[in-house]
Amino acid sequence: MEAPRTAEIVSVGTELLLGQIIDTHAATMARVLAECGIGCQRRATVGDNFARIVDTFKAALSRSDIVIAIGGLGPTNDDLTREAMAEAMGDELVFEEAYAEELKAWFAARNYTWVERNNKQAMRPKHGRMIPNPNGTAPGLIAEKDGKVMIALPGPKGEFDPMAEGSVREYLQSAGGGTIIASRTVRICGIGESAVDEILGDLMAQESPTVAPYAQTGEVHVRVTARARSKEEAMQEIVPVCDEIQKRLGKPVYGFDLETLESAILSELERRGETLALAESVTGGGIGRRVTGVPGASKVFSGGVVTYTVETKKQLLGIDPDLLAEHGPVSPEVAVAMATAVQQKFTAGYALATTGNAGPTSDVDGKPVGLCYVALAKPDGSVEVNEHKLRGIREDIRARLEQFALLKLWLSL
Amino acid sequence: MEAPRTAEIVSVGTELLLGQIIDTHAATMARVLAECGIGCQRRATVGDNFARIVDTFKAALSRSDIVIAIGGLGPTNDDLTREAMAEAMGDELVFEEAYAEELKAWFAARNYTWVERNNKQAMRPKHGRMIPNPNGTAPGLIAEKDGKVMIALPGPKGEFDPMAEGSVREYLQSAGGGTIIASRTVRICGIGESAVDEILGDLMAQESPTVAPYAQTGEVHVRVTARARSKEEAMQEIVPVCDEIQKRLGKPVYGFDLETLESAILSELERRGETLALAESVTGGGIGRRVTGVPGASKVFSGGVVTYTVETKKQLLGIDPDLLAEHGPVSPEVAVAMATAVQQKFTAGYALATTGNAGPTSDVDGKPVGLCYVALAKPDGSVEVNEHKLRGIREDIRARLEQFALLKLWLSL
């Protein structure tokens, strides 16, 4: 199959360089390129400065077959992409009379005042054509010259998204040499990235499909990617590798692609006809939030209590006051008592309980910041408890403990 | 004052070029640079390819005083930033024995298997030093050579954010050419961006301090920014403008800078010696999570229940089965009953309850996806209930309802 073509994306806009907005368009465009089988080797962001935009376009054109510019197509003086595109390609801008008329009509129909500078949006590179924009006034542009392609898309999300997913995707598919790139993600919990790297090293070394790990909070995601003429053909390469990864890693592989740890847990519990209850102290409802984020959670999730104070631990869960007094709320004993109590309260098969000190002060009767306990009560009446010494800010400690609690449950199933 | 220095940001990671994740770090870094008075002229993104990373670093170093690299500092073979940084600066990597020992201890303390490649994270450029990373194993790096500066930060959010906002911000402030950019954020809830625009139009038009609004989920944040020789000097310009904004908008201004709506609520409740209880159905614990995210929440937050099923609404809150049968769980009547019940159960002054259908299927006895109710019970015995028809995916609906519930409580105080 012919050599796949390469592309670069250039986002234009000073607001991006000031960090005032997050560049989601570049990610969308990159995904579309990948799905069209065109390798995106670089992305760049440049402000509303003519010389720097031209310079950035030229550098990208010198390296890649296709350069896609995002933003800077509007009517105002700091919209410079159109002019810079022509300059970088050694082309000139021509005035599209017919489109100017369309524009005037568009303004008239909405009783908007017409200002001359709107005509700027009727200019296009001589070697280019306009991409219709049903959602705004600035059309996109595609120009082909000296074997290079430049595409420019407007910045507003409501205009960019339909164009990127629509006519630009179509154009790129035909430019993609008839191949596509497909991938599948293997989701792994409970072992670190370096350990995954050790176990899958030989797979990561191979040419195709490519196997690459990405560390997430308390998880590792391994992406298996292949290029082929069709998604089906690509999957014939990808699936056996995913199976091999699952075979090597076993239980820590909880799912694929967009499946979450909590959804994997709920499916398994539902399969077993089991139920789950929660007693959250330090996580304050965070585990419940994750569990109920899964559609249909009510089939498995009985309910939960957030017993954040000593009082509510006694009152709502009936934890023995002496136990609380003796060991303090942040203790394995109390975690176990909470799990058992909530398991009975909701007559649930499994119950998770969390207690700990997420900081910032260490005044939970002298228990240090980051010291947390997770208890898991099981249908057979047994209860397991783990101690965690977590670092980081309050937010991280709580997020990690949510993850460790769900991890504990998953690995026990 | 001397000319502020220039910087470029380089994000490293093939997953960015595939559009699989959105680059929020680059925006954070850009904002920090701006606030330190350092102009960021370009941003680039490159994949896990040694030659291209080096080439991108070199190009950036040739144009700018400071180059900041994000990602690629981990232990695996496709983490290449450390090596590329040394190569681009014409420096060599040296092994930091002491840090390797720390790492080994870190792994041992957690019973994680130690693998040799972790030693990679103990390498640093000869002309550089390590930036401590209290939240992970890969330290950041700062190297100064031939009048240029390179900074490298780890990719995981929990490690990147504290480092960027902490030691890196401090370093950049001193590098910022004697001036700093200080800003204060006015946090507003309950009115839209366009309304804020109307009311603050004249302030937004002025040169300095600059006044810029940013729309958030259910909130608007207005950033007031000024450049000066010191933070104190800048604040003398900024504070009066913030006061004026608060005077014009009133109650919807709930706080400043990093203060959250939930922390504003808890402070006000504590001031009044009041307490709060929660009964969450559709939000599944999300409001409890936000409330307990505030340090010292236990002074005000009595506790909560997550009654996700009809059964638990009856059993745990004693909601009248006839009421549930007649109106269905997604109804104003049940929301009110939940709020009253949990208020009594925890003998709390205020109680919030949520019920609704977050989708994706509309099978909650035919109640449409997005239909949700928030009830607020107050110390005077009165109960208010609001209906919300929310659009978007399950996740958005739940997040917005959390916000609306807290908003309801705040505006009633």
Structural account:
The structure is a homodimer of 413-residue chains. With 413 residues, chain A is α/β, with parallel strands linked by helices. Chain A is built from 14 helices and 17 strands. At the A-B interface, helix 2, strand 2, helix 3, helix 7 and strand 10 of A face helix 1, helix 2, strand 2, helix 3 and helix 6 of B. Strand 2 of chain A pairs antiparallel with strand 2 (39-46) of chain B, so a sheet runs across the interface.
Layout of SSEs?
2 copies of one chain form a homodimer.
Chain A: E1 6-12, H1 14-17, H2 24-35, E2 39-46, H3 50-63, E3 66-70, H4 81-89, E4 93-95, H5 97-109, E5 123-125, E6 128-131, E7 140-145, E8 148-153, H6 157-175, E9 180-189, H7 193-205, E10 210-216, E11 219-228, H8 231-249, E12 253-256, H9 261-272, E13 276-280, H10 286-292, E14 301-306, H11 310-317, H12 321-327, H13 332-345, E15 350-356, E16 371-377, E17 383-389, H14 394-412
Parallel strand pairs in A: 1-2, 1-3, 3-8, 13-14, 13-15
Antiparallel strand pairs in A: 4-5, 6-7, 7-8, 9-11, 9-12, 10-11, 15-16, 16-17
Helix pairs in contact in A: 2-6, 3-4, 7-8, 9-14
Provide a quick synopsis of the model.
Chain A has helices at residues 14-17, 24-35, 50-63, 81-89, 97-109, 157-175, 193-205, 231-249, 261-272, 286-292, 310-317, 321-327, 332-345, 394-412; strands at 6-12, 39-46, 66-70, 93-95, 123-125, 128-131, 140-145, 148-153, 180-189, 210-216, 219-228, 253-256, 276-280, 301-306, 350-356, 371-377, 383-389. With 413 residues, chain A is an alpha/beta fold.
